[in-house]
Structure formats: structure tokens, C-alpha cells
Amino acid sequence: MPAATDTPTVRAQAKWVRTSARKARVVAEHVRGRSVPEARAVLAFTPRAAARDIERVLASAVANAESRDDLRWRGEELYIESIAVDEGPTLKRWRARARGRVARIKKRTCHITVTLAQAEVVEVPAKAKRAATKPKAEAPKTEAPKAEATTPAEKPKAESKPKAEPKAETTTEEPKAEEKPKRIRTPRRKKTEEAES
Fold it and tell me: What pTM was computed for the model?
């Protein structure tokens, strides 16, 4: 059977991070599968404390990829292939409570592992690039004669017609606002005088 070609990857790991794996996994879901610049932007604006720890591991993985002599990858061209947050050992402490009892305190830890891979860059042939640029250069040439064909005498006539129509509309609306009758209120003195008599 032919052997499958494995794509090279680079990884970094932070062990015994002082946060629970459950809280760190929420942040890890946001950056899984994203490119490195996009993941850094997401982590920078994530308000959770675990985002700082994941950002440090990501920076370490990028530094590992850039410093390897056999790869020489650029950090901007990488993406997060996988990110795993595993549970670490739990530090068990206690706190005194009422009636001589004890309450448990579990200080949980986790291990964060980030794996990076190089994104596949699709190379466009030089002929395709030239063909794509030619229509863009020809399009303004066809549009320019249409704009120049209009004479200066025709432009003011076309502009004056739409301006005249809104003026007619505004004049019809003004008398309607003035035609509304004003409400007249009667003074209360008459009512009080009638009640006294």
C-alpha cells in the first residue's frame, strides 16, 4: 500500500496552566481552524482570562515554526490545525467551616496544546493574471466616451427637471399644516363660580 504523505506541523504546549479545562475549551472553540492573524485578533478581544494563556501558547507555536531551519515558515501563512485542552492535576485544599466541618477547594489545572500547519497557497499562472487585468483596463475606455458625449447644454436641463418637482410637493404640504384648527381651552373660573352658586 502506498504511504500517505503527512503534512508537516509545528506544535507548542503549555502544561499546568492555572485555569480549568472547561473554561479554556470555550475560548479554544473560537480559534480552532482559523488563520494565525485572525486567531490573534479574536483572542485580543476575548474578555475571558483563558484567552491570555491560549494567546501565549499560539505565539510560542508561531515562534517555533519561524525558527525551524528545515521549514522557515512565516507566521502570517499558518493556520491552527488543532487545539487541545486536557485536564491537568487538581490541587486539593480545604477551608474551615462551621461546627468543625471542612469545605473542599479544588484548584484545577489544564494542558493547552496548539498545532499549526501551513495554509495551501493557490498560485495563479502569469497568463491568467494578464487576462484578468486586461478587461479592467478596457472597461473605463468604453465608459469614458459615453460620459463625454453629453453636451454641457443638456446637463442643466436634465438637472433642472428633478429640482422643479420637489418644490411643487413642498408647496402643497405647507397649506395643509396651517389649515388645522387650533384648540381653544375654556377657563376653569366659570366652572368654580357655577359650583359656588
Answer: 0.59
